[in-house]
Design brief:
Elements (H helix, E strand, L loop, with lengths): L12 E4 L3 E6 L18 H9 L4 E2 L8 E7 L2 H12 L4 E9 L5 E5 L2 E2 L11 E2 L2 E12 L10 E10 L6 H8 L13 H11 L6 E7 L5 E3 L7 H4 L1
Parallel strand pairs: 4-11
Antiparallel strand pairs: 1-2, 2-4, 3-4, 5-10, 5-11, 6-9, 7-8, 9-10, 11-12
Length: 232
């Protein structure tokens, strides 16, 4: 990996070579300008371009609330080549997520999704979407969200989205009836608030842990300190 400039913008660069740059995106940072967050003045694209002093091309998306590996091309040819690799499913992405309940130890969610998650699903064409997951840990925490149960169950899962639909992981785990904790759109507010109080952190519990590219290059962003109670 080449020398990583510190840069006044302060983004944490985790990979830099002639073709690619990758950052460990913090939760709460937009990838690029969006009409849904028109008030936001800082985006990962803008900050990284100022940090490197050059134009960059985002190769995939992370939701604003998601943290972790975010990959950019440094020139148009790399953007084309790696964009085609993403489209062909030749680039593997792996995530960590905290979900409500205890899903099976491993599984595959093969469920078509409406193309635009910002619009009502009814009437939209659906596109194929496939997610694999593996359960890493189960938690039974001593607080009640549902009056029928004295405690509440959650699980840490490792997730591999095999297609790249918008909000795919969040929507697939909602379909599985194990929504992500901290998901204000597809999750449950009572659970989000209870876990935030228990762990002392309010966030969407979704982290892009690793991106693996053709040729053997693997770029990883270890989960932040707030994940330590879930990983120990």
């Amino acid at each position: 990996m080449g020398k990583v400039p510190a840069g006044e913008a302060g983004l944490r660069l985790i990979h830099l070579d002639a073709d690619l740059a990758a950052i460990d995106k913090p939760a709460g940072l937009l990838v690029h300008p969006s009409s849904l967050d028109a008030h936001e003045t800082h985006t990962a694209v803008d900050l990284l371009e100022r940090q490197l002093g050059e134009r960059v091309f985002p190769l995939h998306r992370l939701d604003k609330a998601t943290s972790g590996v975010l990959l950019f091309a440094r020139h148009a040819q790399a953007a084309r080549e790696h964009g085609q690799a993403f489209e062909a499913g030749r680039i593997r992405k792996q995530y960590l997520a905290l979900v409500r309940g205890w899903p099976p130890e491993a599984g595959e969610i093969d469920y078509p999704l409406a193309r635009d998650p910002e619009l009502p699903s009814a009437g939209q064409p659906r596109v194929a979407a496939l997610t694999r997951y593996r359960r890493l840990a189960c938690f039974d925490w001593p607080f009640s969200v549902d009056g029928r149960h004295p405690s509440s169950r959650y699980a840490l899962v490792e997730v591999d989205p095999l297609t790249g639909r918008r909000h795919q992981i969040r929507r697939h785990f909602k379909h599985l009836a194990h929504p992500l904790v901290g998901d204000t759109t597809h999750g449950k507010g009572a659970h989000n608030r209870a876990v935030a109080q228990w762990l002392g952190v309010s966030r969407l519990w979704l982290h892009a842990l690793r991106v693996e590219l053709p040729g053997g290059l693997s770029i990883e962003a270890p989960a932040g300190a707030e994940w330590a109670p879930l990983l120990s």
